[in-house]
Amino acid sequence: MHRGKGMKFVGDSRVPAERKPNIPKDYSEFPGKTEAFWPNFLLKEWIVGSVFLIGFLILTAAHPSPLERVADPTDTGYIPLPDWYFLFLYQLLKYTYASGPYNVIGAFIMPGLAFGALLLAPFIDRGPERRPQKRPFATGFMLLALAAIIFLTWESVVTHDWEAAKAQGQIVAEAEVDTESEGYLIYQENGCINCHGDNLAGGAAAPSLVDTGLTPEEIANIAVNGQGGMPAGLFKGTDEELEKLSTFISELESK
Predict the structure, then answer these.
(1) 160 is in an annotated binding site
(2) Residue 74 clears pLDDT 70, i.e. is over it
């Protein structure tokens, strides 16, 4: 080296001259506390996931979902019901402060705040402790969220009209309806289609008019005086139109 340059070379024997392949760390010093992600931990995850997947497939094969009638967009009496994992949100929208003019609060703001807090929880509570009692914020928030979900889901199940839901999804007999006939036109003009549907198969709000087994006189009497949930005075036509309508309905038979 030349004087005045101020430069020195330092050698360190701890830095290997050759790169060695990645060797998994020896975790024998910490038995039962930690393990290598690959393949130990990941293999266990795959095994547990496979067991649950096989069990789910067996369950769906043993108890298949029941078939329901084809969806009818003209059925105004249909009561929608989401899947079980959304029942708590469905129940939330039934309350006054989360429905009607406050629907935005129940549909967006309240769920958004809850899920936003869930996403921020790891950043707010950054303690190294893993025991629940040592992490009051995370534990309290998760218990509160779990209690709210269970309560709302339970309320949705016990307050829902399951008999009406079963009736609205039931496969009913259908008939070949002549939509150009006088009877059908009278059926439309008097608003019967709003409850009984365009194919007269009925819905949650009204029964099917196919295969009623009633005489034209009995049908005319129901159309004028009502029956069950159908009030009187809905038919506004003439006696001749009432006769044509009742005859049309009494002759409807399933395919």
Answers:
(1) no
(2) no
